Amino acid sequence: MIFETFKSLRWADYFLYALTDPRELYRRIKQKDPDPFALSFIVPFIAALFDILVISLMGSESAFFYYKISYGWILIFIYALFKIVVYSSLVDITAQFFGYKGNIREIITIVNFSLFPGFLFLPVFYLFSIINFAPGFFYAFFSIVFFIWYAMIFIQGISEMHSIDFGKSFVIFILPALFIGIVFFLIFILLIITGVGFITA
Length: 201
Hints:
Elements (H helix, E strand, L loop, with lengths): L1 H7 L3 H9 L1 H10 L5 H4 L1 H16 L6 H34 L6 H11 L6 H10 L4 H28 L3 H35 L1
Helix pairs in contact: 2-3, 3-7, 3-9, 5-6, 5-8, 6-7, 6-10, 7-9, 8-9, 9-10
């Protein structure tokens, strides 16, 4: 009964299908009933808070926690928005490069809702944290698991958006990541060369 009531709320469908059916999620996003763009930013906003809480579970509680929960929350949220916009833009550009129609608004919406399953990270990790059972290992493990879940939602959303197979949508998803990785690697190399030159000068 509660589940059916939840499903009857049209805005809740976005969150429901983010967990259960990424392709249907995109179809609902495309319908814009209601428009999910603004609603989707609730996800990274809450995700930023959960990130702080998860990290806090790995350390000892102190007065600094209250700074993290306020200023840190805002900082992480702004950083998350920056990453979302930049990566979504690169994905959109990549899709257009392959001849598909661009739609940065829908891409950002997909990315935001793709983060929703990550809300489960906190309660799952909390179980291992309170019993102090290899919290470091399970933090890394669940980080990988939920990243893969996020990627699967995003890739299937791209696939449904452009009516292409999973392989092509994976390429569109991964190329921006490779590009960013190469850029940061080159910057790192240049910094090393510059640093060595400065020291030996």
